[in-house]
Write a structure and sequence with these properties.
By secondary structure, the protein is mainly α. It has a single domain (23-488), classed as Up-down Bundle (Amino acid/polyamine transporter I). The protein is built from 17 helices and two strands. It is found in: Cell membrane.
C-alpha cells in the first residue's frame, strides 16, 4: 500500500524573493549556536536523573547518551554537508523517505523547538522571581517579556542574532568555568556525590556521610536515568537549520557541530562531577531546580545568593535565544515548502529573517504555557510546565533522532554517489548505535509515569499535524530547494 501522492503547485515569480535569507555565519558563530542551545542543560535539568540512578548510574547514562550524540552528530554533519538547506532534519528525511517521511520528521523537530524554549523560559522566570522577590502570580510577565525581547533580537537580523549568541554563549561557559575552579578545592566526591542509597522498596535515601555505592539501583537505575541525561546535549542537532545563513555550509557546519559537541563533552563531564561533589550533594541536588546555584552557594556562601542567581540566568538566556533562532528556521523551512501554511515563511523585507515564523511559534508556546498555568492553577501549573512540556520536548527529540539516523542509512544505500564533502568517521555503525540508544531511551520514558503524559502529548501533536498534512498540506507543496534536490536525486537513481 502506497502513501497518497503529493503534487506540487506553481507559485508566483516573487515567491522565493519574499522568503530570502542572508548569509553571515562562520565556524565560530555556528559553534556558539550549537553550544549556546544546549548550555542551559548544564545549569538545570540534568540533575533530575540523580535520584533515578544514583551518581554512578547517572554518569553511566550520560556516557551512553554521549555515545548516541556522537553517532548522531557525525550522521548530521555528513548529511548537512551534502544537503546544505535550512530544512535540516526535514530535508534529510525528505530526500531519503519522500514527502511523508520529511513531514513526520519535521513534525518531531517542531515539537522539540516549540516546547524547549517554553520550558527554559519557565526556569528563567523562576530564577528572576527569586532575585526580584516577585509574587508567583506574576511569573507569566517574565515569560512575555523574555519572548518579546529575544524574538525581537532574532527578527532584527542574522548578524545581530549571531553576535548576541556568541557573547552569551561565551559568558555562560565562563560562568561554568568559575564554578569548576571554585569547586575543586572543596569537592568531596565520596561524601557528597555518593550520598544516595537504596531504601525500602528501592526508593532513594540520603546517606549523610556519603560512601554509598556507585550504582545503588543497578543497571536498571542507569537506564532509567537516560531521558534525564539527554538534557546535557539536547538541541546540538539544530545547526543544519542555519545552513542557508552560513557562508560555506558544506565546510562550516560539520566543523561547527563537531567542535560544539566536543566542548559539551568537557562541560558535561566537569559539571556532573563537580556539581555533585560539593554540598548539598547528589541526593538534594536530584530534586533541585537550580543545581548550579546550589553549587555556588557551597563555594561562595549564601550571602551572594541573589547575585549568583542572576549569573545562573546567563546559561538559560543563551539556550532560550539560540533555540528561538532554530524554531524560526525550522517553521520557515516547512512553510516555504508548503508543509505548513505558506505565509509563515515570509521573511522581513529589510532584515531577511523569518519573523512571522518566530512570532507564530512563540505565540503557540505562550498559549500552551498560559493554558497549563490557568488550567491547573498557578502553583501546580508551574510544576507541570517544567515536567510535562519538558518530557514532550525530549520525546520529540528522540523520535527525530531515530528518523535522522534512518535517513542517513537510506541515503547511504540509495544515493551512494551523492557528493559528500564530509563523511562520518563512524559510518553506518554510528547511525545504528544512535537508533538503538534513542529507542531504549524512548522505552524508558514510557516506563516512567511522569514521562508518559509528555509522550501522549506528543502523540496528540502528531495526530493534529498528520490530519492537516493529509487534508491540506500535501496538496500545497512547493518546489523549495529541499524538494527540488530530493526530486533530482530520485531521477538520478531512476536513470
Amino acid at each position: 500500500m502506497s502513501l497518497p501522492r503529493t503534487p506540487y503547485q506553481t507559485v508566483t515569480p516573487d515567491y522565493f524573493a519574499r522568503r530570502g535569507l542572508r548569509r553571515y555565519a562562520g565556524v565560530f558563530s555556528l559553534w556558539a549556536l550549537g553550544v549556546g542551545a544546549v548550555i542551559s542543560g548544564h545549569y538545570s535539568g540534568w540533575n533530575l536523573g540523580l535520584l533515578a540512578g544514583g551518581w554512578g548510574g547517572y554518569a553511566l547514562a550520560a556516557s551512553i547518551i554521549a555515545v548516541m550524540y556522537l553517532g548522531l552528530v557525525f550522521c548530521i554533519a555528513e548529511m548537512a554537508a551534502a544537503l546544505p538547506h535550512t530544512g535540516g532534519a526535514y530535508s534529510f528525511a525528505r530526500a531519503s523517505m519522500g514527502p511523508w517521511g520529511g513531514f513526520v520528521t519535521g513534525l518531531c523537530e517542531n515539537v522539540e523547538y516549540v516546547l524547549t524554549p517554553a520550558v527554559i523560559v519557565s526556569f528563567l522566570a523562576t530564577y528572576l522571581a527569586a532575585v526580584f522577590e516577585t509574587p508567583p502570580a506574576w511569573l507569566p510577565a517574565y515569560w512575555i517579556a523574555a519572548y518579546a525581547v529575544f524574538v525581537g533580537l532574532n527578527v532584527l537580523g542574522v548578524e545581530l542574532s549571531f553576535r548576541v549568541t556568541v557573547v552569551i554563549t561565551l559568558a555562560s561557559l565562563a560562568c561554568l568555568v568559575v564554578f569548576w575552579i571554585s569547586a575543586l578545592p572543596v569537592a568531596d566526591f565520596g561524601r557528597h556525590a555518593l550520598n544516595i542509597g537504596a531504601g525500602p522498596g528501592g526508593t532513594p535515601v540520603e546517606l549523610p556521610q556519603g560512601g554509598g555505592p556507585l550504582l545503588p539501583f543497578g543497571l536498571h537505575g542507569a537506564l532509567a536515568a537516560l531521558p534525564f541525561a539527554v538534557w546535557l546535549f539536547l538541541a546540538i542537532e539544530q545547526l543544519p537549520l542555519a545552513a542557508e545563513e552560513a557562508r560555506e555550509p558544506s565546510r562550516d557546519i560539520p566543523r561547527g557541530i563537531v567542535a560544539g559537541l566536543l566542548t559539551l563533552f568537557v562541560s558535561a563531564g566537569l559539571t556532573v562531577w563537580l556539581n555533585a561533589s560539593v554540598a548539598p550533594g547528589s541526593f538534594q541536588l536530584g530534586g533541585s531546580g537550580e543545581p548550579l546555584l546550589d553549587g555556588f552557594r557551597a563555594t561562595f556562601g549564601s550571602g551572594l545568593a541573589k547575585l549568583l542567581a542572576l549569573v545562573a540566568c546567563i546559561g538559560l538566556i543563551a539556550s532560550f535565544h539560540t533555540i528561538l533562532f532554530a524554531k524560526g528556521r525550522q517553521i520557515y523551512s516547512l512553510s516555504r515548502a508548503g508543509y505548513f501554511p505558506r505565509f509563515l515563511s515570509i521573511t522581513h523585507p529589510r532584515h531577511k529573517t523569518p519573523y512571522i515564523a518566530l512570532i507564530a511559534g512563540s505565540a503557540v508556546a505562550l498559549a500552551l504555557l498560559f493554558g497549563l498555568w490557568f488550567g491547573m492553577g498557578a502553583e501546580k501549573g508551574s510544576a507541570v510546565i517544567q515536567g510535562m512540556l519538558l518530557n514532550m520536548a525530549v520525546a520529540g527529540a528522540m523520535l527525530s533522532y531515530l528518523l535522522q539516523a534512518i535517513s542517513f542509512l537510506v541515503l547511504r544505500a540509495r544515493l551512494p554517489g551523492l557528493a559528500r564533502p564530509y563523511r562520518s568517521p563512524l559510518g553506518r555503525a554510528g547511525a545504528v548505535v544512535t537508533i538503538a540508544i534513542a529507542s531504549v531511551t524512548l522505552v524508558y520514558q514510557l516506563l516512567d509515569p511522569v514521562f508518559v503524559s509528555g509522550v501522549l502529548g506528543v502523540g496528540a501533536w502528531f495526530a493534529a499535524g498528520i490530519v492537516w498534512f493529509a487534508l491540506a498540506g500535501r496538496h500545497r507543496l512547493v518546489l523549495s530547494p529541499e524538494e527540488a534536490f530530493a526530486l533530482e536525486a530520485r531521477r538520478s537513481v531512476a536513470d
